[in-house]
Amino acid sequence: MNHASSLRDGTLPWYRYPLVWLVILIPLSSVVGGMVTLTLAIRHADATVADDWYQQGKAINRSMADLDQARRLGLELRLYAGEPAGLRLTSKVPMPWPERLQLAFRHPTFAERDIAMTFLHQGGGRYRADGGALAVNDHWVVTVTPEQGHWRLRQRLQPQQGAP
Question: Which CATH code of 2.40.50, 3.40.1570, 2.40.160, 2.60.40 fits the domain covering 53-161?
Fold first, then answer.
């Protein structure tokens, strides 16, 4: 049966029926959508936030005790962005200032953006970064611990809080 005979019979070829295209396009769009989803999942895979998550989970009680100790001491933190970065630590209770502070800047969603810095004591609760500038252009969860680790201070840092 050729095209001319089908036109005489009043029947159209299969590709002229809209319902046929609808039946073809629904599964085809699912296949294309699945391939796009797979490509996005491979290119933008979730990063491992912490390799030792189990050990961190077991240490949650110790971590909470460290946070409570910082609260009892009345510790407050003020960060200063720039070159070099600085911070001011204040306490409501008299205490000896640690010589070094470890700061961990953790990004809430992208582990590859996490930063660790060491701050050296300059006197009177003032600290300067041991090399490196601090660009506060994103949201961070900042964790401050002294070398001895007997307290821990954690706070959220918004972009506008970086400079005095």
Answer: 2.60.40
